[in-house]
Write a structure and sequence with these properties.
Length: about 375
C-alpha cells in the first residue's frame, strides 16, 4: 500500500534539491530556457506537494499549533522556534530594504551571468520595420516575425480567413509568388547527384560546386509555381490549372520582397464586418532536402523533380484572433504542411518526415494593441 507520508517527504526533499541546483545556476549563469523552465515547473510542483503534505497532516499540525501543546513544548522548543522565526523575518526585511551586503552579493551574481560564455556569445537581435498600413483603411494588425536557424531565402504568404474558411484578404505575400516571377533558374551540374540534405547548411559551401544558375532580371510573370505555397495558392486561385494562362493574382498593396531579417510588419484589416479571424502563414524554401524528402524521392513527379528543388514541402502556421477580446497577443502555431509538388491545397498534419523545415521560423506573434 502506498504510504502517502513517505511519498510526500521523499518528493519534497528531491524537488528541494533540484530547486537549490537551479537557483545556483540562475544566480551564476546566463539565462537559459531549460533552467528557467525546470525551476518554474518543479517550483510549482514543490508547492503542490507542500500543500498536499499539509492537508494530509492537518490534524497533527493543528494539534501542534494549539495553545496547550505549545505550552508543553515551550520549555523544550521555545528558543529554537523564536530564533528561526526571528532569523527568517530579519533576512526578509533586509532584502526588502536593499541591505548593502546583500546588494553586493546580487551584483556579484550579475557579473557572473554577464561573463558567462552564453551571454558574451549572444548575437544582437535586429528587426526590420515594414509599415504597409498606410495603403488601406481598417483595423491595424502587427506581426512580429523572428526567423529560425534554418531560414535562408524562403517564399511566404500570410492571409486572413473567416470562420467558414473563405479568404478575407492577404496580409503579406513575397513578390516571387505574388507576381508569378522567378528570375533565376538553377540546375545541377551532375544530374545523377542525389541530395538528401540542404547543401547550404554546410559551412563554406560553394554554390558553383554542384549548381549552375541562369538569372534574368527582365523576367516577369514567367512561372506559376503552386508547389511553392500550395495551401495559399489553391485557396486564393480557384481551379488551378498550370497548363492554362498564368493566373493574375490581385495582390496590389500586399506584396513585397522577401525579408531576410527578423521583421515587424504593420498592416490593415480592411474588413470590419466581424471580430474573429483565422490567420495563416505559409512558408517554403528550396533545397532543404532530408533523408525522406531527397531529390530522388518522387522521380515520376515532374514538379518535385524539376528545377524548383522543392525538397521539404511548405509548412503552415495558424492562430485565431479576436478583435473584441481583451487578449491582444496571439502566438501562431505550426499546424501542418502543404503538398510536396503543389497538387492540392490540403493541410497535411502528419509532420514526422519534416526536419529543419520546422526550424525556418522561430516565432510569429500577432499584436492587436493598436486597436
Amino acid at each position: 500500500m502506498l504510504n502517502k507520508r513517505t511519498l510526500a517527504t521523499i518528493s519534497v526533499v528531491s524537488l528541494f534539491a533540484i530547486l537549490i541546483t537551479t537557483s545556483i545556476l540562475m544566480f551564476t549563469q546566463a539565462y537559459t530556457t531549460t533552467v528557467a523552465l525546470t525551476h518554474t515547473v518543479l517550483g510549482f510542483t514543490f508547492i503542490g506537494f507542500g500543500v498536499w503534505h499539509g492537508v494530509n497532516n492537518f490534524s497533527a499540525i493543528k494539534k501542534y499549533l494549539s495553545f496547550s501543546t505549545r505550552s508543553k513544548a515551550k520549555a523544550k522548543h521555545g528558543l529554537p522556534s523564536i530564533t528561526a522565526v526571528g532569523l527568517t523575518t530579519t533576512l526578509l526585511v533586509l532584502c526588502l530594504v536593499s541591505f548593502p551586503p546583500f546588494l553586493a552579493l546580487h551584483f556579484w551574481g550579475t557579473q557572473l551571468r554577464i561573463s558567462d560564455n552564453n551571454a558574451t556569445q549572444a548575437s544582437e537581435l535586429k528587426y526590420n520595420v515594414l509599415n504597409m498600413a498606410q495603403n488601406f483603411d481598417g483595423r491595424s494588425i502587427t506581426i512580429d516575425f523572428k526567423k529560425g536557424t534554418a531560414f535562408h531565402w524562403p517564399q511566404y504568404a500570410m492571409w486572413l480567413e473567416d470562420e467558414s474558411g473563405e479568404i478575407v484578404q492577404a496580409v503579406y505575400v513575397t513578390q516571387g509568388v505574388g507576381t508569378n516571377t522567378f528570375k533565376n533558374t538553377v540546375t545541377l551540374n551532375n544530374s545523377e547527384l542525389t541530395l538528401s540534405r540542404n547543401p547550404f547548411d554546410d559551412e563554406g559551401f560553394v554554390f558553383e560546386s554542384i549548381f549552375s544558375e541562369d538569372y534574368d532580371e527582365s523576367r516577369s510573370n514567367n512561372k506559376f509555381r503552386p508547389e511553392a505555397l500550395p495551401i495559399f495558392l489553391h485557396r486564393f486561385v480557384k481551379d488551378i490549372d498550370v497548363s492554362e494562362t498564368l493566373p493574375q493574382l490581385k495582390l496590389d498593396g500586399y506584396t513585397g520582397a522577401t525579408q531576410f531579417e527578423n521583421h515587424i510588419l504593420t498592416q490593415k484589416v480592411t474588413d470590419e464586418s466581424r471580430q474573429r479571424y483565422n490567420i495563416y502563414f505559409e512558408i517554403n524554401q528550396s533545397f532543404d532536402f532530408n533523408q525522406y524528402y531527397s531529390s530522388d524521392r518522387f522521380p515520376d513527379d515532374p514538379i518535385y523533380s524539376g528545377d524548383g528543388f522543392s525538397a521539404q514541402p511548405s509548412v503552415l502556421y495558424h492562430a485565431t484572433i479576436d478583435f473584441s477580446s481583451d487578449q491582444k497577443f496571439y502566438a501562431m502555431s505550426l499546424v501542418g504542411h502543404g503538398h510536396h509538388s503543389g497538387r492540392d491545397g490540403e493541410i497535411y498534419t502528419n509532420m514526422e518526415n519534416l526536419t529543419n523545415a520546422k526550424n525556418i521560423v522561430d516565432r510569429i506573434i500577432i499584436d492587436l494593441r493598436q486597436n
